[in-house]
Amino acid sequence: MTTQLSDMAGRSNMTPRARMGKATAWSLIALLLIATLFPFYWTIRTALSTNPALFSGSQGLLPPEFTGVNFKRILGLASEAEIQAASGRQNSASFDYLLALRNSVIIATTIAVGQVFFSAMAAYAFARLRFAGRDKIFFVYLSGLMIPPIFILIPNLILMRDLGWINTFQGVVAPFALMTPFAVFFLRQFFLSINRSLEEAALIDGASHFRIFRSVILPIASPQMITLGILTYVTAWNEFLWPLVIARDPDVQPLTVALGVFTTQQPGSSPDWSGLMTGTLMAALPVIIIYLFFGKRIVDSIRFSGIK
Amino acid sequence: MSDTAGAIQSRRSLNQYGGWKVAFWFLLPSAIGFVVFYLFPMFRGIWISFTDWNLLANEGEYIGAENYRTLISDDQFWDSMRITGWYVFLNIVSQTILAILIAVMMDRVTKSAFIRGVVLLPWLIPNVVVALVFVWLLDPNLGVLNTFLGWFGLESDFLVGTGSVIPTIAGINTWRHMGYTALLIFAGLQTIPKTLYEAAALDGATEMQMLRKITIPLMRPVLALVLVVTVIGSFQVFDTVQVATGGFGGQPGGPVNSSRVIYLYIYENMFRFNDTGYAAAIAVVLFVILMLTTAVQLRLLRAGESDLAS
After folding, report:
1. What does CATH list as the number for A97-265?
2. pTM value?
3. Does chain A have fewer CB atoms within 10 Å around its N or its C terminus?
4. What whole-number distance in Å separates Cα of residue A107 and Cα of residue A253?
């Protein structure tokens, strides 16, 4: 009833002023979408151009000299002559995209799988088991959220050196693969919302907690764990500071660091813009593909973590 | 499993909720991760800040509070604190205002899932990629944004001007984070009863009045949470500065140290000046500042209290 009334009021109020308001709101939304998407478009446009054309200062919406050679370059398929024509110089610096891609996949997969599984075990203990000091230990875990990463980066780097794990995959993934306070918090919150009746039936049948965790909790919680896993994967993919200090060797460098190194090799006066933009596009592409497939899950997970 | 019925019975009454014997194994992997990579480094970091630790030699002597005394009279430290504070201020103000506007529009004008999806996209892109794309967009000579602004006579030096570099980085990170912040606020908006808006509309309230009188007061707990998270994140800006100001053979933090934020100063002390003890001391100070900021914010915003309850 009330809704109907206000609807009617709204419609009869569609005076020129209200219509103006609606138009303003929609043009602001259009502006927002353009501001968000334009940088992506311009990156693609640049990646499809040659450097000499870019340096001529053309700002047209379409690539000034359309070419796919930059993608061949980054995949290591272009000939020396093609590279020269596209980059406009000899002996242009490059980075091994496929190697860095492989490293990023290894690092992000290990971190996502390990972190989600081991954090789920801890979350189960905090949500379902009873033991002395449980809530105190959980609080200590949570306080880890407050520690700035750079503060523990220094001792962690020293530790990795003592272990001989500099320039190794285990060194890059170790600080993230066993837990993060956020993952434990997120999953405990979810486990608490699961109905206990199934577990209690299993307990009465004499199932151990390990069995219940494996056969009851993991299947029920798998959608949430997959969502957390995707978020963890993207975070690990985007991580820059830790791999920057521990992975100096291209054999273990993820894309973010390899791209950063590639950038510092550019001559200040005339950077290889088309090559750089192809690199940035290809470094972000896996994340964009993941988002195309799992976008709804990711958006919903932010709602979930926001309200709780 | 050789358990008899009786053994099961007694184990159930004793171990229905596990107890330490079970919990130990569930906690073991995460506890190793927490102790080795969070707890132990935290105490070790504090210890290192009282030494003259040298990363190349990988050793250091206890020197008391010497690093902290140096820090108090170190102009470069205060300079980087000032730069960081300026960055945090600009970033938080622009990001929060834009995020509230976007969230309200998503709530009141369109609930399109597509728009929400697009708005979140920048947050998922690596900082390094975002930084490089903007270095190109904002290039003083070839960048498309200056061409556009040139039509109105508004060209800027952006990343290569001493005065404009920090506002530019704040703008880049606003672009990356405003959608994420907007979604957090949007989630909070969904908890406000729609009848309030309907009643206000009947009374002839304008959208602006509803925003000020209904939305903002009821959103205080969510806004407090969002501000705490974004301010802490903002203090720790590093990737964007390192890549956007340091690329192409320049020194990160330029031009002439005008964008040397606190993270970068810690990083430089560690790797360029090889003074790990001093770097650790600055990191301790940063840690304390972040905790104090959080406490003050929570107090000021009276988090946890929504006017909806009263």
Report:
1. 1.10.3720.10
2. 0.89
3. N
4. 9
